[in-house]
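Suppose you are handed a protein chain with no further information: no name, no annotation, nothing but its sequence. What can you learn? This example shows the usual starting point.
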Amino acid sequence: MEQSLASADDAERPLEGPSLEGPSLDGPSLEAGQRLGEWVLEAPLGRGAFAAVWRARHAALEGRRVALKVPHDPAFAARLHREGRLLEKVSGPQVVGVVGLDPDHDPPYLVMELVEGESLRDRLEREARLEPAEARRILLEIARGLALAHAAGVIHRDLKPANVLLDQAGGVRVADFGLGRLNEAATQELLASGSLRTQEGTIVGTLRYMAPEQRDPQGEVDARADLYALGVILFELLTGEAPCGGEVVSDVRPELDPAWDDLYRELCARREKRLESAAAAIDRLERVGVEPVGPDPVEAGAARSVAVPAGLFARWLAFSIDALPFVLLALGPLRAGRGLPALLAFLLYDLAATVAFGRTAGKFFCGLRVVNREGGRVEGARAFQREALRLLSLASLGLGYLPALIPGLRAFHDTWADTQVVHD
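A reasonable first move is to predict its three-dimensional structure. Written in structure tokens, the prediction is:
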């Protein structure tokens, strides 16, 4: 699949103020085989808020293909010209480069490198969320692309998964600087040449990824706005969800390195507390862990013990310790009519302790624990099933425990309930 340079995702439609009013968005009539300058249109790749993007080939050099961006209305030619001038200042392996520009053609067009692959939004829709190592790799490449742009004085202002392209070799490219702007120094340089006109008091961007200062028409926007968007993308890559309120990555995936939470907070903080540069983001990303921090130590201990089933002697000793108080209750001086209540009380105690703690008092003293097949705590329904089957084992004079005499085998009730008693 060849990926466009403009998003057609209505859920991420860029926001803009006055400039969207007036000109028609129907666009010029374009069709395959039509020639624009030295390029011949082949197929549409996508349609964004301001322009359509086509795959095109060179009229003379058959093997050369590009992405051609054509605005919906000639009134947007100035925007296209600005985007071309912005991208002319940015070059590198993490940025989609500009090949050519003809703002005076009818219709005007911008020629961009063609990236064969998919957008990061496409991948998220396909995979929901990414593993930490892959998420870190992609985020590092995005941050390096931002570093290239920021070093050239260019602020993207609309960074989002739809504007990040993944080529077939796994490369990551930041695309679509249509809403970008220059920092003050670079703006003055282009203004002196008469090549750029600016418009103040306009909100631009995509709401989900916009930094707080970017939502304020009078807010001061600098390169840190792109870092805020990078933080939102970080959350999405790791969780498959958009951030909500004050939650952090570990609220959705508690097994991840806590450093992910710290980095997310630093990227999505208010401007004065945000990471100061893309280089700082790269440094943090290179040091964040990608291996799971691991489950609860008690649960992990149980999981490691699954391969070491408890012996029959240890199990009967634990059972004797647990049963002793109830036997004394049933056989005491006032034993008349207490046998059945004592048995029921024992079963309820055993069931409650197994569900709540994974062990009874007797198993605790003998260093044993009841676990499921994965080595985790036994849930209520399975624990109840185990106790019912265990009652049958006891009613059959303990014959159900006989398989546990053979190393590697489990008692019948553990086999049927898919549980196991292991050394702690």
